[in-house]
């Protein structure tokens, strides 16, 4: 048997701690005895009595820790003694579960949640790149809500993420679904077989809601930011997200929503999609690529519907309105003199505004995206930076839109308006009751300005959303608004009102 | 050497440091350059004109004690005429609470950081209420000061010799597990110190002397504070002067300014106006009576004690007006701005995690979290003494100025 004595000078350890460590080590194979005591007089006597005192231990003072180990080999005794000292000085994290403390620094936050795999970043864009890089360095996937991140920073950070096999969702990513957990602005939808890759904002929300209405669900919804398919970023995250969804057994079909990709990026995207086993349905807003690598859709609802049909193995039938009888009925009861007047659309969702614009421009001719453009049709994204300076986003604060609406009325600029087009996005993150806010605005248009302009609402949400789709629909109906659960239909219906000539074309059932 | 390595080197030295209260000596014998008319004070250097009421009062008392003057007017003439040589105690390995005045014949604690051969010094703690460090200098105070220097100091010196020195680091570690945070609360540590001394005081003194000494140390309540402060300073001095290190090695206030020193930035001070203290007041006093933050005792926070260890001292929060949860959160907040955890000072409520150690100026500037200091509130009128206690935060300005200087130095 071999024995070692180690003295750790000028230290203090509670005897309970020493006994715990000693008993843990004593259980090991080849260890006969582990004694750990502070060198107080009483402890020296104790060591004498039990015959453990050694020549070295006798010199230890009351502030010195004595570690005596008896083991089968000298090496084991020494190693155990070293380990005992290490166990005593091992760093320990606080058990934070019951504390309300919110850490400020990333390394401290990781101390609280050592298993965290994702960071959500929502800080002014100027600082977002640095924090993103820091999170990536800590092997965290990033949900980057912040906008105004420099394009070269985005490209650089996405390369870093990709090298580490991490997702960098964003910048300016408003919505994501990962393993059934929603991040940012999210609707309550069922989980299912459709995987999504999107910029991602209201476009993703519209698609998941439509799929949910059709009885299908979402496996994951990965946001990549609006510039991922630009030449500078090169579609790095889109390709990675597509490959991840392709490997995911739960995902049977993929929907990709994006602005038109840069031509070179489009080519590499085609390459990527051809290698996937999972079919990809795209909605490149405003363009159709000459390619059969993916199934292309003109609208968000079409993309969702095509996915549902693919999953149900039923043929997809394109149509402008899902319920043509309802449209006929609405038009029959429409008594306004909207024809020839202009459409004013006040949107809170950028992708929804863009979709309406792309649908209406061929039908209406000039459509302005600028509120100050008098005389022409006008579709405005009130969530755009120039309208949100110093203000919350209108999805959170819909009263900002009411304010714009009433200002237009006061300025007499609604006098030539034949149809008001709105979107209304429900879900987590959105205002608790946007329908009532819009209803109040419409009521004020009537009572104060004597305006009874037809109001058409594109309502994006599900019954599971905190605001309740049915309830919001009821409020809007009572306010006299015509509600569509599909954005493209709301836009087309507005066109029917102001351009009666297009009725035949739009209401015809396509072959 | 990069910053991380420099900080590691600095912290390794601090962690390996010891603090043994080994002796009591007259200041002029141990503190460098303590010639006649030398007056050391708390905090960063400042002029007589800038000094607050309590500090001027304490200097007046000290000058009368030294026999350099007999009245406040005379002291004012000595000071204004440039006869008195003022310096920060920190420049000479010395330290003191509140005004922290040290003059040549005062007896000082000698605390040794053995592995690094560093000796640090502090005056003997005088008790609470009407005391010199708060600027009191009436006959009662003078009598007490004389007794302390003439009877108590020699007795303690002999007792320390008999004891072979007393390990302060070990007492600090033990009392942290007994509910002290070693700045505002010293219930356990003072008792543990007295336990170590009693036998030796009886050995070396007459019965009456021993009883007077024991009674004084017991009633003073925080007698150990000055010894802990000297010990803490000795540890931090070991970590000073490491090129490239961003670790704070001193935080101190003089009632006019608060200042910090940084390991890699030499002897420079980075200062800002002394902040007010958010706290509770003794009956009859309010914020209008309070002196801005004063004293070197923030050295305890700098070594991870005080507010940094408040999680382990739930009882102290009542004194400063908070909840036990607040105590825990204060410590957790301090981990955000520190880069190490103390290997010997452990906090039971945080699962025996080491106290937050090593304030990094970069983390302070990045988070905007500045070190919280548990502190007593001094009355701005000299001689009244402590009128409350509370929390104060060292101004961010000190840290941004230090970081800018660091950046300049590095380029």
TrEMBL record, chain A:
Residues 346-495 form the ATP-citrate synthase/succinyl-CoA ligase C-terminal domain. GO terms for molecular function: succinate-CoA ligase (ADP-forming) activity; succinate-CoA ligase (GDP-forming) activity. Pfam families: Ligase_CoA. GO terms for biological process: tricarboxylic acid cycle. GO terms for cellular component: cytosol; succinate-CoA ligase complex (ADP-forming). Coiled coil: none annotated. SUPFAM superfamilies: Succinyl-CoA synthetase domains (SSF52210). It comes from the Bacteria. This is FdrA protein.
From TrEMBL, chain B:
Pfam families: AllG (PF06545). It comes from Desulfofustis glycolicus DSM 9705. Transmembrane segments: none annotated. This is DUF1116 domain-containing protein.
């Amino acid at each position: 048997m071999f024995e070692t004595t180690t003295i750790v000078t000028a230290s203090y350890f509670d005897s309970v701690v020493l006994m715990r460590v000693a008993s843990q080590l004593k259980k090991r194979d080849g260890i006969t005895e582990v004694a750990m005591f502070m060198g107080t007089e009483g402890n020296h006597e104790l060591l004498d009595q039990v015959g453990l005192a050694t020549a070295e231990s006798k010199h230890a003072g009351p502030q010195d820790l004595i570690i005596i180990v008896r083991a089968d080999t000298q090496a084991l005794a020494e190693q155990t003694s070293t380990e005992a000292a290490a166990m005593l000085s091992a760093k320990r994290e606080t058990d934070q579960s019951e504390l309300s403390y919110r850490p400020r620094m990333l390394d401290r936050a990781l101390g609280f949640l050592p298993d965290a795999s994702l960071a959500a970043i929502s800080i002014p864009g100027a600082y977002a790149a640095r924090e993103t890089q820091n999170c990536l360095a800590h092997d965290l996937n990033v949900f980057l809500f912040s906008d105004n991140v420099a394009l070269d920073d985005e490209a650089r950070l996405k390369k870093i993420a990709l090298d580490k096999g991490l997702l960098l969702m964003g910048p300016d990513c408003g919505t994501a679904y990962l393993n059934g957990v929603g991040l940012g602005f999210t609707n309550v939808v069922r989980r299912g077989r459709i995987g999504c890759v999107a910029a991602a904002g209201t476009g993703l929300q519209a698609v998941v809601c439509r799929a949910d209405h059709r009885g299908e669900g979402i496996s994951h919804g990965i946001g990549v930011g609006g510039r991922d398919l630009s030449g500078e970023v090169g579609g790095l995250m889109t390709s990675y997200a597509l490959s991840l969804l392709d490997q995911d057994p739960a995902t049977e079909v993929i929907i990709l929503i994006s602005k038109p990709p840069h031509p070179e990026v489009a080519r590499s995207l085609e390459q990527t999609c051809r290698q996937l086993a999972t079919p990809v349905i795209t909605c490149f807003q405003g363009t159709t690529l000459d390619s059969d690598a993916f199934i292309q859709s003109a609208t968000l609802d079409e993309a969702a519907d095509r996915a549902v049909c693919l999953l149900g193995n039923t043929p997809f039938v394109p149509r402008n309105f899902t319920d043509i009888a309802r449209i006929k009925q609405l038009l029959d009861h429409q008594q306004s003199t909207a024809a020839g007047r202009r459409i004013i659309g006040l949107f809170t969702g950028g992708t929804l505004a863009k979709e309406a614009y792309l649908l209406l421009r061929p039908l209406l001719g000039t459509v302005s995206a600028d509120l100050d453009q008098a005389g022409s049709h006008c579709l405005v994204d009130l969530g755009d930076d120039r309208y949100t300076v110093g203000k919350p986003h209108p999805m959170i604060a819909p009263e900002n839109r009411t304010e714009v609406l009433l200002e237009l009325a006061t300025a007499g600029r609604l006098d030539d308006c034949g149809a008001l087009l709105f979107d209304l996005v429900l879900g987590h993150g959105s205002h608790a009751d946007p329908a009532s806010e819009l209803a109040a605005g419409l009521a004020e248009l009537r009572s104060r300005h004597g305006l009874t302009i037809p109001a058409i609402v594109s309502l994006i949400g599900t019954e599971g959303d905190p605001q309740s789709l049915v309830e919001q629909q009821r409020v809007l109906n009572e306010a006299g608004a015509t509600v569509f659960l599909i954005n493209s239909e709301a836009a087309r219906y507005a066109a029917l009102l102001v351009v009666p000539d297009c009725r035949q074309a739009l209401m015809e059932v396509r072959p | 050497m990069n910053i991380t390595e420099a900080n590691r080197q600095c912290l390794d030295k601090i962690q390996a440091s010891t603090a043994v209260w080994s002796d009591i000596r007259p200041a002029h014998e141990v503190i460098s350059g303590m010639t006649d008319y030398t007056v050391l004070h708390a905090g960063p250097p400042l002029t007589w004109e800038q000094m607050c009421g309590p500090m001027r009062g304490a200097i007046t008392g000290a000058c009368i004690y030294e026999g350099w003057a007999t009245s406040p007017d005379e002291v004012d003439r000595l000071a204004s005429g440039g006869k008195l040589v003022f310096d920060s105690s920190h420049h000479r390995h010395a330290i003191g609470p509140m005004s922290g005045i040290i003059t040549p014949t005062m007896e000082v604690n000698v605390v040794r950081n053995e592995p690094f051969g560093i000796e640090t010094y502090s005056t003997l703690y005088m008790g609470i209420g009407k005391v010199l460090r708060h600027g009191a200098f009436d006959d009662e105070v003078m009598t007490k000061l004389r007794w302390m220097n003439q009877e108590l100091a020699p007795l303690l010196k002999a007792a320390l010799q008999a004891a072979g020195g007393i390990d302060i680091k070990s007492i600090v570690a033990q009392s942290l597990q007994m509910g002290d945070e070693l700045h505002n609360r010293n219930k356990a540590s003072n008792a543990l110190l007295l336990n170590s001394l009693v036998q030796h005081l009886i050995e070396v003194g007459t019965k009456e002397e021993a009883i007077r000494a024991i009674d004084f140390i017991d009633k003073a309540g925080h007698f150990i504070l000055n010894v802990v402060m000297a010990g803490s300073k000795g540890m931090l001095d070991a970590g000073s002067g490491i090129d490239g290190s961003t670790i704070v090695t001193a935080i101190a206030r003089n009632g006019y300014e608060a200042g910090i020193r940084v390991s890699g930035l030499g002897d420079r001070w980075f200062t800002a106006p002394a902040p007010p203290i958010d706290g509770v007041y003794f009956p009859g006093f309010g914020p209008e009576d309070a002196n801005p933050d004063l004293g070197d005792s923030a050295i305890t926070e700098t070594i991870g004690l005080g507010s940094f260890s408040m999680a382990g001292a739930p009882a102290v929060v009542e004194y400063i007006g908070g909840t036990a949860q607040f105590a825990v959160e204060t410590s957790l907040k301090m981990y955000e701005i520190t880069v190490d955890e103390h290997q010997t000072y452990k906090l039971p409520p945080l699962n025996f995690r080491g106290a937050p150690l090593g304030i990094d100026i970069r983390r302070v500037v990045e988070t905007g979290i500045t070190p919280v200091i548990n502190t007593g509130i001094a009355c701005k009128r000299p001689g009244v003494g402590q009128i409350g206690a509370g929390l104060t935060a060292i101004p961010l300005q000190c840290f941004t100025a230090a970081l800018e200087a660091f950046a300049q130095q590095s380029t």
